[in-house]
Amino acid sequence: IMSSWGFAEDLIRENSIEPILAASVGWDEENDKLIFDKNIYDDTTNTWKQKKTSWQLFEKLKGITTIKYDTMDKFIYLSVESYSPSVAKDLVDMYVSTINQYMRERQIVESENNLTYLKAQLSKIKNNDIKIYGNFSNQTSIIS
């Protein structure tokens, strides 16, 4: 999921990190600010000169992100490269927050689907029990 295009689109859109991915070319260490390519994005006016496609942004994110699953300790290791250490940390935090939210929403949908299924099964069981009970109540028993 974390490596998928769909997930990346959500991550990029929800956190508005398009400029970081598409136009960052350096870092002003003194002010802890990214430097943007003015031919692509003007950070003073927040205007695009060359808007990137969703696929281009995904490719850029994929290029700066490393995701590894350790089968021994069952941990997922995530690292993100950036010109700025603080931006790299923020990107990792965004990634973790977004995947956690995605998994919570996925579990809710899955739980709701399971609940709907179980209610339908319970309804069938109750209807069958009522039919069986109803059939027995219509029969006359002879006791000698």
Give a verbal description of the structure.
The protein has 144 residues and is an alpha+beta fold. The protein has helices at 5-15, 18-23, 54-64, 85-138; strands spanning 24-28, 33-36, 41-42, 47-48, 65-70, 75-80. The protein has a two-stranded antiparallel sheet with strand order 1-2. The chain has a two-stranded antiparallel ribbon with strand order 3-4. The model has no long low-confidence stretch (mean pLDDT 88).
Write out key terms for the chains shown.
6 strands, elongated, 144 residues, alpha+beta, 4 helices
Radius of gyration: 28 Å
Give average pLDDT, whole number.
88
From the spread of the alpha carbons, the general shape counts as: elongated
What proportion strand?
A: 15-25%
Number of helices: 4
Global structural class:
alpha+beta
Distance between the termini: 71 Å
Biggest β-sheet strands, sense, barrel? 2 strands, antiparallel
What is the chain-wise order of helices and strands? HHEEEEHEEH
Entry summary:
The protein has 4 helices and 6 strands; from the N terminus they run H-H-E-E-E-E-H-E-E-H. The chain is an alpha+beta fold and 144 residues long.
Please render the helix and strand layout as text:
Blueprint lengths: L4 H11 L2 H6 E5 L4 E4 L4 E2 L4 E2 L5 H11 E6 L4 E6 L4 H54 L6
Helix pairs in contact: 1-3, 1-4
